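Predict the 3D structure for this chain.
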Amino acid sequence: MFAPDNIGRVIERASRLFPFEKEIEISLEANPDRDDCTRLPGFRSCGVNRISIGAQSFQPRLLKYLGRLHTADETRRALHTACDAGYDSISLDLIYAVPSQSLRELEADSVEALSFEPHHLSAYNLTFEEGTPFGKDYRAGRIQSLPEDTEIAMAKLIEETASAHGLERYEISNYAKTGFQSRHNKNYWLGGDYLGIGAGAHSYKHVDNDDTVFGRRWQNERPPRRYMNQVRETGQAVCVNEQIDRTRAAGEFMFLGLRMMQGISPQEFSHRFGQPPDDLYPVISDLLNDGLMEKSGSRLRLTSNGLLVANSIFVHFV
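Done. Predicted structure below.
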């Protein structure tokens, strides 16, 4: 809902508060509807150099099923507009494993998305989260997930199609051309610090040299009016503030790092937590024997088979 001038003011203010790297990534998410489409050139002119467009699908019936307000033609127009605006990096989001979706429909989505030659592609399988309409319908038996072998075939299809267009898989759901991996997302997966500013924003700070606290995570008030009032009164609007202990920090290190194709460094884990990961998680030995995990040089990572059942692996580290 922000106009380009407002985004420009945020960027300009940030540049006065913090030093910007020469090759900084300034990324913005946009919906491919008519309003955002008309703003895309303005966003680029005010300093945004990476745009992420939530296409989700090019199939009208799937867009309707997902409750998206944009049309496939609006997505096409937005992509053409973004290309003409001269963004350094363009990313597309797709959703797959939608109930009743066919492999042929996903193939058509993947081929069309990649025909625009995006620098980055995110492809997420639909999950039925608690508290969402999909989650309620799933629990009530009104919708069913696709068979596991179909979901696996879809994941393989996306990887093969992306690879054929020069995008390498670097994270479970993300593919990129060389030099175009999402910097902010990589920072989350690698356990880096991040500062969230605004209503509902989340932040994280790693803590060194403390035997009991390994990190701190906090969240701002979500309602904008409450957030603004509290900032005016106290200078900040943190409503949730939690300390991350050793057990939780170690688990997050494992399941976030294992999302990456490069996996995790056992040496770094040992340095941070005082013992090797296989001492803290004996299940690693079973995962290695079952061919779901492998040692690659000095790193530990999921195999291609392990990536297909990653969520069932991650529960061992939560």
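Residues 190-244 form one domain.
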